[in-house]
Amino acid sequence: MKSSLRHISRAALALLWVALTSVTAWGASSVELRVEPASRNGSIEVGQKFYIKVIVTNIQEAPSAPQSVPGAKLQYFGHQSSSSSFTSINGQTSQKVINIYAMTLKAEKKGTFSFGPIAVGGVKSNTVSYTIAAAGSTPQPQPMPQQNGGAAGAPDPMTGQQGQSGPTFIGKGNDQLFMRANISKTTAYEQEALVYTVKLYTTYSSIKFIGATDAPKFDGFVIEESNSVSNQLTYETYQGRTYATAVIARYIIFPQMPGQLKILGNKYTVSTDAEEYYHDPYFSQLTVRRPIQLNVTPNDLTVTVKPLPLPKPANFSGGVGKFTISSNLPSDNAVANQAASVSYLVTGEGNLKYINLPDLNAIYPDELEVFSPTTDVKTVVGSTNVSGSVNFDYSFMPMEAGSFRLPPVELVYFNPATGKYETSTSRSYTLNVARGAESAKSQAAQVYNTRLVPAEVPAAREARPWIRGFLYWLWYIIPAALLGTAMIWRRRYMEIHADVEGLRSRRAGKMARKRLKKAALRMKAADEDGFYDEMLKAVWGYLADKLKLPTSELNRENVSQILSDHGIPAEADAKLLTLLDECEFAKYSPASARKPMQEIYDEGAGVLNTLEEEFAKAAKSKNDTKSTEKDDDII
Q1: Which helix (H) or strand (E) holds 177?
Q2: Residue 82 region, left (φ>0) first, then alpha (ψ -120 to 50), else beta?
Q3: DSSP 280-292
Q4: Cβ neighbours of residue 42 closer than 8 Å, sequence gap 6 or more
Q5: Full-prediction pTM beyond 0.70?
Q6: Helix, strand or coil for residue 58?
Q7: Residue 156 DSSP one-character state
Q8: What is the rounded distance in angstroms from the CA atom of residue 31 to the CA atom of residue 120?
């Protein structure tokens, strides 16, 4: 019996210990009074209804209905809503319970009045003030003037101050619903990935519809829209008030130039229900929902963009982020005069689409001729960055038999996390090239007939020897002339190919024709994103080849300055910049705002033809005594 009692007492102590260690702690208690006008313009007039809400936090008692409210008549007082949340830290759980009680009041007297404080469960509230105006004395709200889809001078719903420091409303709005725009960093490097988010804050019980009526203005940025948005509402405390929040838009943006770049918020249309509370003698509390529509704009933002540190490495790839490079040679055996392939895969996070590898013809052996690569870009737009891979597939042709070393390829990129240029290196290969069948020389044996053939005509005494004839020496002259011509051609060929930049400049038109053909194919296939990518590659690739610029120095300012130095008219430069703006805008804008692809294609072909003609004219006027090689029109 005693043993049983001991076991029972031990079990009781264990249960008591669990109960003591799992006690839920209550947070701080508070009582808050808040005045909410019922009218849309936020004013209170004689004869109109308005509300005073009592927000009770972590107090189990309910407030009592007031005997009177200065300047107004109490029509109804009752419980409106309640919410609770739990937080557990190191085994300690805290609970927060919020109950909201609403007074429905009718304004009766003109003047400025105050109400409070009141006490609930021994906790005192604040005092609220409100002004009641004469009936019809408050002007009706007028639509705010809009600029770039927003109201620049609208007040902050939290502070009431003018300016763009906080969220703004367009047309109808109140502090029960607003939006805030945030960016991951306000100071960043060129091409560094930044996260731009638009967050909804509301105290309405339900949201029926949210739709963007226009797009944000990202001037000077390249954008990638992310699908990482909120599917459910969460609760957040902002400036002492609890709101239901949701991320409704998220973009990964890449600044393209140094300086102060602005992001202008876009306008959203939100449909919801506003609740009004009445006291009915038969049904007690009566709630009436009135549908309303709010046009809301998030705040504008400014980003300070720093240029990449100088000096930039000579082989800088243009990549900003964190990347690695790997390589793949399908076979280390090849045959002379037969094509082979090698590929390089760049993976990581950052501006993957704008990475360029070094010119392999400059680092590979002269006996290997490398052709332009085909690229395959696979990216995923996440919540914090753009990640994925870019595959560069090169074809090359060995010109001679032998053993050749394919050197490692260096990918030089800028890492914003460390603020330094970093290098990732691929592996090297040894390529064994066998002699091809077409390069073997036939070794035909010469067969001589030693049988003497009698002469049909007797030889003349003074016959001229054949060695003194012209036909005999012609067998020496022709090979000598061919050999000299081949040597001259070979020297010219080496000089031309030694000047890689000059060769690129002369072939700029030809390469642009190929890229425009790819854009035409994309246009026929109705692939708009692929079309604008190919058009941008055609324009930027032509400028890089023609102006002999590395990718790291290829930007709008350098191009305009160099075109001016080459004598290109300002009109042609303006058309070029307009074309680039139209392509970038069309690529990242809705389909309804884009120009037709055929119109963009015609403009691009015209601009490149104009530049080709202007370059030829500039070269001819520079030196009239030398003939200038003018490429054919691109189209």
Answers
A1: strand 177-183
A2: beta
A3: ETTTEEEEEEEEE
A4: 174
A5: no
A6: coil
A7: P
A8: 7
In percent, how much of the chain has pLDDT > 70?
75
- With CA atoms as reference, report the closest residue to 150 among 182, 179, 177: 179
- Give per-residue pLDDT as tens, 606-626: 888 888 887 777 777 765 545
Q: Say if CB 358 and CB 410 are below 8 A apart.
A: yes
pLDDT in tens, 373-406: 999 999 888 878 889 999 999 999 998 999 999 9
- Torsion sign over Cα 148, 152, 155, 159: positive
Structure tokens at 258: 């140094």
CA 59 from chain center: how many Å? 48
pLDDT band at 118 (very low <50, low <70, confident <90, very high): very high
Phi-psi region for residue 283, left (φ > 0), alpha (ψ -120 to 50) or beta?
A: alpha
Beta bridge partners of 375: 392
**Cβ-contact 199, 244 below 8 angstroms:** no
Cβ-contact 270, 293 below 8 angstroms: yes
* Cα 239 versus chain centre, distance: 31
For all residues of the chain together, what is the average pLDDT? 77
Nearest CA to 81 out of 57, 97, 101 is that of 101
Dihedral angle sign, alpha carbons of residues 459, 462, 464, 466: positive
CA neighbor of 411 nearest in space, from 346, 327, 329: 346
H-only helix segments in 499-596: 500-506, 508-524, 528-547, 556-565, 570-587
The span from the CA of 91 to the CA of 106, in Å, is 49
Contact in structure between 100 and 7 (CB atoms under 8 Å): no
In whole angstroms, what separates CA 165 from the centre of its chain? 25
Instruction: Grade residue 17 by pLDDT with cuts at 50, 70 and 90.
Output: very low
Rg over alpha carbons for the chain, rounded to the nearest Å, is 40
